[in-house]
Design a protein that fits this description.
By secondary structure, this protein is α/β, with parallel strands linked by helices. It is built from 20 helices and 12 strands. A hairpin with a 5-residue loop joins β1 and β2. α2 runs parallel beside α5 and α5 packs antiparallel against α9. The longest helix is centred in the N-terminal third of the chain and has 53 residues. The two termini are about 45 Å apart. Bound molecules: adenosine-5'-triphosphate (ATP). Adenosine-5'-triphosphate binds next to α11. The site of adenosine-5'-triphosphate has 12 residues, from α11. Pfam families: ABC_membrane, ABC_tran. GO terms for molecular function: ABC-type transporter activity; ATP binding; ATP hydrolysis activity. This is Putative ABC transporter ATP-binding protein.
Length: about 600
């Protein structure tokens, strides 16, 4: 987020006015809620019928009594007729008021039910996408897709499609009735409505552009906010608050300016709209009064005409707005489907090859592995090594050498660009992803703890993790006293991202989490953070228990782990430069000896 104009242009998807393939696809989400969808339609239909009936009652209530009273000395017959009309009108009002409740309730419910399904589908899909996808997408933009974009779609179903369709029906029916009342009056009215249609539709284009810009600026604002909140420690320690605040203000200002454009448009639009409506009403008044004087129209007919006219004007007035809702919903639908259409590249094969059942330490082989995250930037350049069953291979090397990448590939977060990784002789791309990963125990430097209880974080809903295995794991990971010290023990609440634990504690808990499922292969990225010597000893003992008898790939930073490893790989710039045991490598007096001297002589 640096320059003022670096908005994500994938946010600015332009769409057609009406995209039937998109609509068909959206309609698939309506299908399970069809009864609700049609109920909304039925309610709207009833309301419309009620409104029409209302105008007819007004006409009858005026013309009937006037006719009855004409030339009569006794006024009582016209009075009783008036009571009848007004009574009927009151009943109608009660009926439509109740319907109005159902109108909002069913329409909103329909929209929300559809949105619920769609949101759940999108979230499930995003979770299954591979890391390559997330590398390319800012989290903020994904959050916007799951929240705002899908909310827009809900509006499409509630105030968009159903209402628009209904408005069309309304216009046709009302126009037809207007012609039955008085053709001349109806013709004059119809002649003046194009002004209103023109104003309504001209607003459409400007509003759409302004609206799209508001959304893009909002996505940028969200992205920046998310980034800052995630990196709040860095912000604070580097005293970046002022600068970050300024950048946020900049993004906020852009958002404000974009919003101002829409405000300006609306400010202009509404008076223009009223002007067009007054013209129509004025024309109707002029022609109507003349028709009454010419005895071509009764007072009651004129009032009914007037009421119907307002019923006609409303949908036309809202035409532009409805059109915009549809447009913005289509744009949102496109963005949402973009995500849904992204297929995960790292998937299980259709016919996975069988691997040994859980309970045996696997044999891992990296065979001339090449890898790049982005085109033309090789990160691994022909890496070959093996982890025999039950053995520990430690990887050391300068930062950026490609150590974590080895882990990413073994876990199949990404697939190799060329070469192979074999698990018990089978290419990892040929075996079932889930059953393979379920045999792995992973401990990361800054392992992720979710909000919830300590127990939830350790069990992670894995089958086979029992109270008993949890206790053993905690003990082996030297984390038992840590948990016992906590208020509530295993049921203590973990703050979001486990931010209340120290790095050492988090690593011990992560080890317990890995141990609890008794993994066959351990992948350990040792924490580099300096810890006090008591914790250091705990971590050493926990590491020893974690690795004992298991195949293991360790990105090693601790001398104890490195010394005990069966083989050490020294990596530099994506290649293995040296390999051997601790003693062998020291004797070589090469890169490892230098690294060792630099890192450990003081500590050893
Ligand atoms: N998701 C990614 N997209 C693009 N490049 C990446 C990605 N992850 C890592 N890299 C690049 O790949 C190279 C190797 O990174 P890797 O994380 O494997 O190094 P490392 O040896 O584990 O370093 P460290 O000890 O600092 O963790 C680095 O140059 C890094 O910039």
């Amino acid at each position: 987020m640096s320059s003022a104009d670096d908005i994500d242009h994938s946010e600015l998807v332009a769409t057609k006015a009406w995209d039937s393939s998109l609509f068909k696809r959206l309609f698939r989400y309506v299908r399970p809620h069809k009864p609700l969808f049609f109920a909304s339609f039925a309610v709207l239909l009833l309301l419309f019928a009620g409104e029409l009936l209302g105008t007819r009652i007004w006409r009858g209530a005026i013309d009937g009594p006037i006719k009855d009273a004409a030339g009569q000395a006794d006024k009582s017959p016209y009075l009783s007729e008036l009571y009848l009309w007004v009574g009927g009108y009151l009943a109608l009002i009660v009926f439509t008021t109740v319907l109005r409740y159902f109108e909002t309730a069913t329409l909103t419910k329909t929209g929300q039910a559809i949105v619920h399904d769609l949101r759940s589908a999108v979230f499930r899909h995003i979770q299954r996408l591979d890391l390559g996808f997330f590398d390319k997408r800012p989290t903020g933009s994904l959050v916007t897709r799951v929240t705002t974009d899908i909310e827009n779609l809900s509006e499409m179903f509630t105030s968009g499609v159903i209402v628009l369709l209904f408005d069309l029906i309304k216009v046709v029916v009302v126009l037809a009735i207007l012609f039955t009342i008085n053709v001349k009056l109806a013709l004059i009215t119809v002649a003046t409505t194009p002004i209103l249609i023109a104003v309504s539709l001209s607003f459409r284009g400007g509003a759409r552009r302004a609206h799209r810009e508001v959304r893009a600026r909002l996505a940028k604002l969200n992205g920046y906010l998310q980034e800052v909140l995630n990196g709040i420690r860095v912000v604070q320690v580097f005293r970046r608050e002022e600068r970050v605040g300024q950048r946020f203000d900049e993004a906020l200002r852009e958002y404000f300016i974009a919003n101002k454009k829409t405000i300006f448009l609306f400010a202009l639009f509404f008076p223009a709209m009223s002007f067009a409506v007054y013209i129509i009403q004025g024309a109707a008044l002029w022609a109507g009064v003349r028709a009454i004087v010419d005895v071509n129209l009764t007072y009651g007919e004129f009032v009914q005409f007037w009421l119907l006219l307002n019923m006609l004007v409303r949908p036309i007035r809202e035409l532009g707005e409805r059109y915009n809702i549809l447009q913005s919903a289509f744009a949102s639908a496109e963005r949402v489907f973009q995500v849904l259409d992204t297929k995960p590249e790292v998937v299980s094969p259709a016919r996975p090859r069988a691997i040994a059942a859980a309970g045996t330490s696997p044999h891992v082989v990296f065979e001339d592995v090449h890898f790049r995250y982005v085109k033309d930037t090789p990160v691994l350049k022909g890496v070959s090594f093996e982890i025999p069953p039950g053995k520990t291979v430690a990887v050391v090397g300068a930062t950026g050498a490609g150590k974590s990448t080895l882990v990413n590939l073994l876990l199949r977060y990404y697939d190799v660009s060329s070469g192979r990784i074999l698990l018990d002789g089978e290419d990892v791309r040929e075996v079932d992803l889930e059953s393979m990963r379920s045999r792995f125990g992973l401990v990361l430097q800054e392992d992720f703890l979710f909000a919830g209880t300590v127990r939830d974080n350790l069990v992670m809903e894995r089958e086979g993790v029992t109270e008993g295995s949890l206790e053993t794991a905690l003990e082996a990971a030297q984390a038992l006293d840590l948990v016992e010290r906590m208020d509530g023990g295993l049921d203590a609440e973990v703050a979001e991202r486990g931010s209340t634990f120290s790095t050492g504690e988090r690593q011990l808990l992560a080890m317990a989490r890995a141990l609890a499922a008794n993994p066959d292969l351990v992948i350990l990225d040792e924490a580099t953070a300096a810890v006090d010597s008591a914790t250091e000893h705990k971590i050493e003992r926990a590491t020893a228990r974690l690795l004992a008898g298991r195949s293991a790939l360790v990105i090693a930073h601790r001398l104890s782990t490195i010394r005990d490893a069966d083989e050490i790989l020294v990596m530099a710039r994506g290649e293995i430069r040296e390999r051997g045991t601790h003693a062998e490598l020291l004797a070589q007096d090469g890169l490892y000896a230098k690294l060792h001297a630099l890192q450990f002589t003081g500590a050893a």
